[in-house]
Design goal:
Elements (H helix, E strand, L loop, with lengths): L2 E7 L3 E8 L4 E2 L4 E4 L6 H14 L6 E5 L3 E2 L2 E2 L14 H9 L3 E5 H12 L8 E7 L3 E7 L2 E3 L8 E2 L2 E2 H5 L1 H6 L4 H19 L3 E5 L6 H4 L9 E4 L6 H14 L8
Parallel strand pairs: 1-5, 5-8, 9-14, 14-15
Antiparallel strand pairs: 1-2, 2-3, 2-4, 6-7, 9-10, 10-11, 12-13
The protein binds beta-D-glucopyranose.
Beta-D-glucopyranose binds next to helix 3.
């Protein structure tokens, strides 16, 4: 049994809890602090450090980031401060927290948690997890192996970045009914399905709690579509679980 602190950096909040990585259970209540604005590297590292101190944590930590992270270095920052681009997030968080830290994309972390402990448990073949929140995040698995940093939220639909049309934020900003938003999601999912043909699509992010409002409205997809099982905790659990793979020097996570 390994205990790892999972930390999930989102657009509105930064959440953390210690996780038993054998069972995927949180071993203490999670704590949440507001994401600083602007969400610069120093400001975010400061909040992450406060959470580490709140748990008196001295062991390893896994941290999610809402952008592409390759070799610990942030490559894109669509929904956080652009000064993150080029920053070695592992070094930044290790310097601030004095802990051994692993960093991975937020949707990849949620996907890892769902494949190991949630809706994708034991499912082989091609599985795609999509998170609908401020943006659209994606995590692609083939026989339980993660293909990191896929970024399918930025596919172009009707000349626009897909997440600008079909994220949860877009639904709120354009005050869309569930029916018209589901139409946009349907169009997006059909497009993604035509490219990847997953056997299973898992819908994660904040919207997964409201799955009954829009999943029945989706039509014409070949893949089975299910809501995420771990909902809000998926990022924390996946971040913690990925630490073992990173420590072992693996380039990706095999659930
Ligand atoms: C980012 C992804 C992230 C997703 C969800 C997108 O805008 O490009 O890296 O996974 O938002 O936060």
């Amino acid at each position: 049994m390994a205990h790892v602190l999972g930390i999930d950096i989102g657009g509105t909040g930064i959440k953390a809890a210690p996780v038993d990585t054998t069972t995927g259970q949180l071993t203490a209540d999670r704590q949440k602090l507001s994401t600083p604005h602007p969400a610069t590297p120093d400001a975010v590292a400061e909040v992450v450090t406060q959470l580490v101190q709140a748990f008196d944590w001295t062991g390893p930590a896994g941290v999610t980031f809402p952008g592409v992270v390759a070799g610990g270095v942030v490559q894109t920052a669509a929904n956080v401060d652009h000064s993150w681009i080029g920053v070695d997030a592992v070094k930044a968080f290790e310097a601030a927290t004095k802990l051994a830290v692993t960093v991975l994309n937020d949707a990849d972390a949620a996907g890892v948690a769902e494949m190991r402990f949630g809706a994708g448990r034991g499912i082989g073949g091609t599985v795609l997890l999509l998170t609908f929140g401020t943006g659209i995040g994606s995590a692609l698995f083939t026989d339980g192996v993660l293909v990191p940093n896929t970024e399918f939220g930025h596919i172009e639909i009707r000349g626009k970045d897909a997440e600008r049309r079909a994220s949860e934020l877009a639904r709120e900003e354009h005050d869309l009914s569930w029916g018209s938003w589901a139409g946009r999601v349907d169009e997006y999912l059909s497009h993604v399905e035509s490219l990847l043909s997953p056997g299973l699509i898992i819908i994660g992010g904040g919207i997964s709690r409201k799955a009954d409002k829009f999943l029945p409205l989706l039509t014409g997809l070949r893949a089975k579509i299910v809501p995420a099982g771990l909902q809000n905790d998926a990022g924390i659990v996946g971040a913690a679980f990925s630490v073992d793979a990173a420590t072992a020097g693996h380039a990706t996570v095999h659930v």
